[in-house]
Design a protein that fits this description.
Elements: H1 10-18, E1 22-25, H2 29-34, H3 39-44, E2 48-51, H4 57-66, H5 68-82, H6 92-111, H7 119-141, H8 143-146, H9 148-153, H10 159-186, H11 196-223, H12 226-240, H13 248-256, H14 262-265, H15 270-281, E3 286-289, E4 292-295, H16 302-331, H17 334-337
Antiparallel strand pairs: 1-2, 3-4
Helix pairs in contact: 5-10, 6-7, 6-10, 7-10, 7-11, 7-12, 7-15, 10-11, 11-15, 11-16, 15-16
Length: about 350
């Protein structure tokens, strides 16, 4: 929460710190607008921004919305810095996933003998969403610590740093999607266009989920620096818990279905989102090749996918609101911890 107050004496400053609050110089028009002040008057005034854990989640959301231009600027800056002095620039964002896909293809389809038709498309469909989620969470977790200088000196809603990390992951998602389109054309494979709304719904849900986790972990990481290293290990295990390099229907449903335990697998919120991407892009729940039937995806209707994605979205939104509340409680002592 940002309040314009006179300069505090030293003993008052100490009381603020003891209460978990922090004073930060703030002349920003965005902060003024967030609390009803005129933007031009805010530029002329001298005030202090008090970061307090009593700020409501609603007001934090309002601050983020009023700072949306800053969010866009941070995303653009992140992209520019990442490929600064690089000859190929953003082309690397397409080369890297293409190389990863080639490695998985050689290992699983050639070395291990996976005969599933168009396996590379099936693989890329799952990797596309997972790469966005993994990159957003991983970079978002350490972004507050990595930008300690800005956090201690400049006044702005600090949650935007994590949201900008997820925004940058969305930009890379776009370029990786271009690589997928190239593969689809080269392999003469067509998506199931009727499931495109399901894919877009799953994409939005994945972005909200990644944002919620990134905001929550970025605040925790300020106090527990091992969080960033721990999340790397967790994401590695999480990847293999998703049906990306193996087919859900023949490997999970076939084994857990007879025991009525498939619900356990769906406790992983990324599973419905990955399946939605695969259902749209790979398009074939069941395929046939060389006299062999391959059960790949659930043979359910569109409403089944939408229902699961909606449940995940509800969880993601609730987690995002909790993350903002936790971030607000922890934000007051960021300057001391950093």
């Amino acid at each position: 929460m940002a309040l314009d107050v006179p300069a505090q004496p030293s003993d008052a400053g100490r009381r603020l710190k003891e209460a978990g609050e922090e004073q930060v110089p703030d002349r920003s028009p965005m902060a003024a607008q967030a609390f009803g002040a005129d933007a031009r008057a805010a530029r002329r005034a001298t005030g202090t921004r008090i970061v307090t854990p009593t700020t409501s989640v609603r007001k934090r959301l309002k601050e983020i919305w009023l700072s949306r231009e800053l969010l866009v600027y941070l995303v653009r800056t992140e992209i520019k810095v990442k490929y600064k002095n690089s000859v190929l620039g953003l082309v690397w964002s397409m080369v890297a996933p293409a190389m990863t896909l080639a490695i998985y293809f050689v290992v699983f389809q050639i070395v291990l003998g996976n005969k599933q038709p168009n396996f590379v498309i099936f693989l890329f469909a799952g990797l596309l969403l997972w790469n966005l989620f993994q990159l957003g969470v991983l970079t978002g977790t350490g972004v507050v610590v990595n930008n300690a200088g800005i956090v201690k000196k400049v006044s702005f809603p600090r949650e935007i740093l994590s949201l900008a990390a997820v925004g940058s992951a969305c930009v890379f998602f776009f370029f990786q999607a271009i690589v997928l389109v190239i593969f689809l054309i080269a392999l003469h494979s067509s998506p199931d266009w009727s499931y495109l709304p399901v894919l877009l719904f799953a994409l939005v849900t994945g972005i909200v989920l990644a944002s919620a986790i990134a905001v929550l972990l970025s605040a925790i990481n300020v106090y527990l620096r091992d969080t960033q290293h721990l999340i790397e290990v967790i994401l590695t295990a999480w990847f293999w818990a998703c049906p990306i390099v193996y087919a859900y229907q023949s490997n999970i449903a076939a084994k857990l279905g007879p025991r009525s335990l498939t619900w356990v697998y769906f406790l992983n919120p990324m599973v419905p989102l990955v399946l939605s991407f695969q259902r749209c892009i790979y398009a074939h729940p069941t395929t046939y090749a060389h006299g062999v039937t391959y059960d790949v995806l659930p043979t359910k209707g569109m409403l089944w996918y939408v229902g699961l994605d909606a449940a995940v979205l509800g969880i993601a939104v609730a987690l995002f609101l909790i993350a903002l509340a936790v971030f607000g409680r922890l934000e007051g002592n960021f300057a001391e911890e950093l």
